[in-house]
Each structure stands twice: as structure tokens, then as C-alpha cells.
Write a structure and sequence with these properties.
The structure is a single chain. By secondary structure, this protein is α+β, with helices and mostly antiparallel strands. The longest helix has 21 residues. The strands form 3 sheets. Strands 1, 2, 3, 4, 5 and 6 form a 6-stranded antiparallel sheet that branches. It is globular and about 60 Å long. A hairpin with a 6-residue loop joins strand 1 and strand 2. The protein has 2 domains: 114 residues, Phosphorylase Kinase, domain 1 (2-Layer Sandwich); 235 residues, Aminoglycoside phosphotransferase (APH), C-terminal lobe (Aminoglycoside 3'-phosphotransferase, Chain: A, domain 2). Helix content is 48%, strand content 13%.
């Protein structure tokens, strides 16, 4: 029985509480996550990490805990109650470990639940975009002095453009004639953008853009808000690892500024929302601006374009490979997603001058 299993695992952690009930939290797509209610006021989030997706779970959990501890030290001036609402606070097992591994080989970790909070699946106004920008900017700013040598690369080459483009080229060699024909316009668009989309990768490899702690999944649903729509903290830190600021900035912009769902078939509905971009940038730079170099600032707009391109090429690659990675609802689902992201790039490119940081500051 699931409740008995959860109660057993919960009691392996050092919480001094009594298990009352549980509720499954279905917001994630990879891990199993449960809200545990206790006899005391404090509730907890108990999570089973999917070790089929994440091969180094102990490294993943260590990353989360290291970064959380760093943030807690940086915000130690806050009242204890407020601190627990601004940072994910993990609970050790009774043996002092950061996770519990059960007999089936599953890894579990636990954190304190932040009550009176909410998330947004999509951005519907500039206030939410601004607050999201502040949250992710603050996260990057507070971790800018963290020693990244302590972090495990939980998903190797996750945002590596050379790797993603190589996957695309391999897919071209094995794709069916039918799929190659249906995707020919997308393929031409991808090949046309190749050189520009490698610029940030080369700047990273040359050391002109420094490595730092990055979240790597900065969709707006990973920003936690209070009931007044003010940002509280960044959540879902499973993919925290070394990266560059453009990854987090770009992925947030990709998900916040698309005027349609990423699998919208009607491309006339797919446009880049410049107002949301400006609101996000305003909040983002308010928190992190002083810790960014001039070259990091200069390439933020290209970072947005590059992250959209990475998703476009990943969707297109999967389509050419016969849909073996992403879940699809119909035969051309991945092709529709690729077309969607490439249309978003077109809309962004038309407004790129207005996206430049210097232009926004005028």
C-alpha cells in the first residue's frame, strides 16, 4: 500500500513529526513527489528521484543540498521563518544522509513544504514576468561565488550546441525519405542558423563567458510565488549544475515569451511577446546586473534565440529519429513543435534590436 510505503520512508528522515496523510503533487513529469501532512504545523515534500532518467542520483541530490546550504548562508540575515520561505530547505535522514535509498534501489529526499504559495504554468501579465525575472536573477546572483567544482554534471552536454547539432546531423543520415521531405523547410532553417547558433558555445569554450551555477530548467512553473504574486524562491533544482547565464536566461525567455503553446499548429498564433521580455529583463537585471560582465550582458538576447533553437533542433532531431525521446500525441507532433520554435525565432529576430540590453536602458 502506497501510504504505508510513504510513511515508512518518511520516518527514515529526521523531522520529529507524526505522519498524518499524503497528497500526490503531479506538477513534475519525471519524479514522484508527495506532500506529507503532519500532526505539527510543518508539512514536507517527499520525493522519489527517477534513477532511470538521472544516472547519478546521489550527485544530483548533493548538488541540490550544496546550493541550498549556500543560499541559506547568504540569506542568514533573514528571520528563520522567512528564510524557510525563500530557500528550499532539505531534511537529512536520521543517519545524517541527504537521501534515503530503499530496498528496491529508489532514492528519496525530503524538504520543508512552503505553504501559502503558488506557481504559474504560463505568464499572463507583465507583473509575473517581472517577478520571475527577479527570482531567477537573484538565484544566479546569490550563487555567483559558489565553487562549481563541487557540482556534478547530472545531464552531460545538456545545452551543448555542438552536441545537439551533431545529433541532428546523425538523424539526417538515418531519417526516412518521407520524414526528410516533410521536414525539409525546417532542415533548411536549422542549417541556415548553424553558425550564429554556435557563437555562445564558442565564447563559453574560450572562457570569455564564465561557468557558474545554473538552474537549467527556468520555466515559470519553477518559480514559487506568494499569494500576492510576489516571488518567493526558485524550486525544482534537480538540474542545477555548471553552466552559463545565457542558458537560464534563454530558457526562461523561451517559455515566458511565446504567445502560444509550444505545440500550437497555427503558426500565426506564435509570436515573441516583447512586453513580457522587457518585464522579465527588468526584474532579472535588478537582481543580477552588477555581477554580469559586459560580454555576458551583450549576448543575453542571443542567449534567448539560442535556447529556442536548441529546443527546435531537439524536437526536429526526434522527429527525424522516429519519435523515440519525447512523448507524442500524433505522428507529426515533434515536427509541429519544431516548426513552432522556429517561428518563435523568426518573431524574435524581427525584434532583436529592441531586445538589446543597451536599448532597454535608454
Amino acid at each position: 500500500m502506497l501510504e504505508d510505503k510513504l510513511k515508512f520512508v518518511f520516518n527514515k528522515f529526521d523531522h520529529f513529526s507524526e505522519f498524518l496523510s499524503y497528497e500526490e503533487l503531479a506538477s513534475g513529469h519525471i519524479n514522484d513527489t508527495y506532500l506529507i501532512e503532519t500532526a505539527k504545523k510543518t508539512s514536507y515534500v517527499l520525493q522519489r528521484i527517477n534513477h532511470e532518467v538521472f544516472r547519478d542520483v546521489s550527485g544530483l541530490i548533493s548538488n541540490k543540498v550544496y546550493v541550498s546550504n549556500h543560499l541559506q548562508k547568504k540569506l542568514a540575515h533573514l528571520p528563520k521563518k522567512e528564510l524557510k520561505r525563500r530557500v528550499l530547505c532539505f531534511v537529512n535522514t536520521k543517519k545524517g544522509d541527504s537521501y534515503y535509498r530503499d530496498k528496491e534501489g529508489n532514492y528519496w529526499n525530503m524538504m520543508i513544504y512552503i505553504d501559502n504559495s503558488k506557481t504559474f504554468e504560463t505568464v499572463t501579465n507583465e507583473e509575473v514576468a517581472y517577478e520571475g525575472g527577479k527570482l531567477f536573477g537573484d538565484f544566479l546572483n546569490l550563487t555567483s561565488d559558489f565553487d562549481i567544482s563541487k557540482l556534478t554534471e547530472v545531464i552531460p552536454k545538456f545545452h551543448d550546441m555542438s552536441f545537439r547539432y551533431s545529433q541532428f546531423e546523425d538523424a539526417l543520415k538515418i531519417a526516412s525519405e518521407e520524414r526528410l521531405n516533410k521536414a525539409k523547410t525546417c532542415i533548411k532553417q536549422v542549417e541556415h542558423l548553424k553558425e550564429e547558433m554556435h557563437i555562445i558555445q564558442r565564447l563559453k569554450e574560450s572562457g570569455e563567458i564564465k561557468l557558474r551555477v545554473t538552474h537549467n530548467d527556468t520555466k515559470i512553473s519553477n518559480a514559487l510565488f506568494d499569494l500576492n504574486n510576489k516571488g518567493l524562491c526558485v524550486i525544482d533544482t534537480d538540474t542545477v549544475m555548471p553552466g552559463i547565464v545565457h542558458y537560464d536566461f534563454g530558457d526562461a525567455i523561451r517559455t515566458i515569451c511565446n504567445t502560444a503553446a509550444e505545440d500550437e499548429k497555427n503558426l500565426e498564433l506564435v509570436n515573441f511577446n516583447l512586453a513580457y521580455y522587457k518585464a522579465y529583463v527588468k526584474g532579472f537585471l535588478k537582481e543580477i546586473g552588477s555581477s554580469l560582465s559586459s560580454i555576458e550582458l551583450q549576448y543575453l538576447p542571443l542567449g534567448a534565440k539560442t535556447m529556442i533553437f536548441i529546443m527546435a533542433i531537439r524536437f526536429l532531431t526526434d522527429y527525424l529519429n522516429g519519435d523515440i525521446y519525447y512523448k507524442t500525441a500524433y505522428p507529426e507532433h515533434n515536427l509541429v513543435r519544431a516548426k513552432n520554435q522556429l517561428k518563435l525565432i523568426e518573431s524574435l529576430s524581427e525584434q532583436i534590436k529592441e531586445m538589446e540590453i543597451n536599448a532597454l536602458n535608454k
